[in-house]
Structure prediction request, 540 residues.
Amino acid sequence: MSVFWLPVRVYLEDTDAQGVVYNAGFVRFMERARTDWLRERGVDHRAFDETLGLSLVLTSIEARFKAPGKLGDILAVSADLLEIKGARAVFVQEVRRDSSGGELLVEGRAEVACVDSANGRARRWPAEFVKELNR
Amino acid sequence: MSVFWLPVRVYLEDTDAQGVVYNAGFVRFMERARTDWLRERGVDHRAFDETLGLSLVLTSIEARFKAPGKLGDILAVSADLLEIKGARAVFVQEVRRDSSGGELLVEGRAEVACVDSANGRARRWPAEFVKELNR
Amino acid sequence: MSVFWLPVRVYLEDTDAQGVVYNAGFVRFMERARTDWLRERGVDHRAFDETLGLSLVLTSIEARFKAPGKLGDILAVSADLLEIKGARAVFVQEVRRDSSGGELLVEGRAEVACVDSANGRARRWPAEFVKELNR
Amino acid sequence: MSVFWLPVRVYLEDTDAQGVVYNAGFVRFMERARTDWLRERGVDHRAFDETLGLSLVLTSIEARFKAPGKLGDILAVSADLLEIKGARAVFVQEVRRDSSGGELLVEGRAEVACVDSANGRARRWPAEFVKELNR
Prediction:
């Protein structure tokens, strides 16, 4: 398992009247990082659905906001797979200022379930992907 | 044709680091008003799709921002049908502070097309709805 | 302490390509409910800042997504104060379909800190508000 | 004057229940491109405010939606200065699929005013920037 860092620029759309990144903005950034982490390993939302009839849905999110992000900042957003078992994948994530070595802004955890696109029922992550995701 | 006014509260999510409602926030508010205007006349996005196989898609939007919306404000957002013809419906809209008689914040115009949900092709608005929408 | 329920309509802006309410949308809805709960008890973001120089910032959020919200749904979003002590207030929250007795969609928890608007340092919630919030 | 193209990845947050990029998402993408175009020419929102006491505010937006953006797409979003005069700068913009030569999804136009951050009054764009922006 390897940590992935996505650079994210903070635009006006991401900020709020307190002058900093709005909390749900960080939640969106965390999903961008998970999405790109998965895509790099061959799991693309659209292809997953079209070829396997499977969707990935967020089943839980936790985020602790330690320091504010500011307009114009470049942030580094990580995604790291903690565990994948059955239908469930657990990610730990961070948001840091500037780069992976920068100030810690957010610590988070996300659980993503693999489900049948047609009926929403939990389905095991396909074995060929589990191997790739665990690398 | 009658003007419809939707009250909209401004939350932190709607604001940006300039301390005011973010421009795309007003665009979202305008759609809320069009959606509720249509729903009151029997056109519900989900039902329209499920029963008729039709979707409503925004084909153009214009907005002129005259004055800022602020955190905690109650805004009044209007939707008024200017014209409906063929596949196309044109709305004029306003956002005002407090109520329909309040300070003008935004003037806008939106064109909505009726399309086939399956292939995205333009389709005439069903005649029974045109009559109702023109009332 | 009393549970507060805010009705929230699901618009197109709140949904995603999976056809349901996007996860960060629920996070936004939860803040709307906390904001209105606080406003009913005399704590208004803008007034709090202007008169006391204090801001309320989200320091952590947790949400477990149990069932999907759909386009056009009316949701009921709760906010209930679990604890307020020092600079910290803890809320438990739910999102249910239709009303407070409807299907549970989301369970969450939010911690909000009272901080000095000028420097971001933690400040005790003013005693007069603690009393009101604990009622 | 030169056209600037910003690559933008479409994430789940940008889509809606119609399975495509939500209209206000395109409005956000257009602002990202204007912001980066300006930053490349020395105009940074935050620095502009802190050093000159000036803010840039969107005074009007127009967008015509020609074709849908899809989940996972890479879009190319342009910003091109049409005119800058007094307090006003006018941009023409496009969103295309894949790259600057790809399918046209959106055509737009945005007017941005330079205002005094303290009172919101229109102020001439500083001459040294006008020269740079017109290059």
